[in-house]
Amino acid sequence: MDILFIILNIAALLLFVGVLIVMQKKHVSFSKRVFTALGLGIALGLVLNLIYGVTSEVLAQSVDWYNLIGTGYVKLLQMIVMPLVFISILGAFTKLTIGKNFGKMAAIVLSILIGTTAIAALVGIGSAAIFDLNADQIVQGEAESARAEDYEARSAEVGDKTLPQQMLDLLPANPFLDFTGARDTSTIAVVIFAAFLGFAYLRVARKDSETAATIKKGIDAVYSLIMSVVTLVLRLTPYGILAIMARTVATSDFAAIYNLGKFVIASYVALAIMFAIHLIIISLSGLNPITYVKKAAEPLIFAFTSRSSAGTLPININAQTNKLGVSEGIANFSGSFGLSIGQNGCAGVYPAMLAFMIAPSQGINPLNPMFILTVVAVVAISSFGVAGVGGGATFAAILVLSALNLPVALAGLLVSVEPLIDMARTAVNVSGSMTAGVTTAKMTGELDKEVYNAPLETQTVE
């Protein structure tokens, strides 16, 4: 009987996949297909959750099949992340305008990424204070206890290293190892390696223009090849979002979410405020924030559903260049660096909220100005090297809490609501990197206003 129900659940997903295929054949816009996939996924997930419950074996086996589409799509995106990060940063150096304005461009992007993360820490602390959050409010069960032990184990590894040693871990001693994503800091290591090669290219360009032209031609060719792969994968986005959203909603423990409702609400309020701050930054740049919201919707929705900043990178860069008018060099730089530096949600809001909640248990007044300034400074520094995949917030929390000498085990007690909060955190991470790209392009005169202001209906994934 269980097999029959599993088959019916799979058939329901395939039916919705069929709806999306029909929409594609009728040339319905990409944006509408993405939003339709999101709605269908939520509806399907709710039905499955209500019928079976999160502990159902039928649901577990059905989700395994759903993962063929959902997780399979994310894996395809992850497949091209490291090559795309590498060639994006390296390709940025081959652009003549980037070569001339690289220092200014890099400084603006990094300032926005790190500055907004520091602001995010203040917002997180403020939200936690307004909602009067405290670690004692967290209910501890088996899953929470297991996660707490895992946090303690990872903290022990981090705690054995001084801050200088942790900074050394960012360097790519073996770039080929980092291309496999073997370390928590692999993404930033690949970025650093690509940047070294980029500076080397600029040296060659000054001394031997003929050789530089050959190098540039090769880099541009590889970039075109990688972006062609990206385009092929992006066409699958609606189907990936459908399966991921259905799985996420179907397996959500709404009872646990209710028990930790105040923390969830406080987190979403803080993240919403950070997104509003992004829009304010866009407005101060002289651009229409509503236009930004419309054109950034697709990468933000995918980030929300997939919980992967790295997986969203191809969609992020595509939206910046083809819809928001950001030059390729700046879009590649901001998108790639945004994976590991200045993640507003995972490395900013989340660790700061945890520090505020845990501090009273250690006899620390969380509203002490010096404590708040310390948290903000530690968050900003620790935001370097945060992994751009699901779980990056865990790494960031361990770094921040360890640096503040606060027990990290209590953070593991939020495991039951982690996926729900991580969805919004990831979307804010991606918005932060896109905001950095758009603002930098505007400030350096490399924003195509005609593309930025063009109707969204005319801009689709090619």
TrEMBL record:
Membrane topology label: Multi-pass membrane protein
Keywords linked to the UniProt accession: Amino-acid transport, Membrane, Transmembrane, Transmembrane helix, Transport
Keyword Membrane: yes
Location(s), subcellular: Membrane
Domain of life: Bacteria
Main localization, broad class: membrane
InterPro entries, per database record: Na-dicarboxylate_symporter, Na:dicarbo_symporter_sf
Transmembrane keyword on record: yes
Transmembrane segments: 6-22, 34-52, 72-93, 105-131, 185-202, 222-245, 265-287, 370-389, 395-415
UniProt signal peptide: none
Family: Belongs to the dicarboxylate/amino acid:cation symporter (DAACS) (TC 2.A.23) family.
Protein name: L-cystine uptake protein TcyP
Lineage: Bacteria, Bacillati, Bacillota, Bacilli, Bacillales
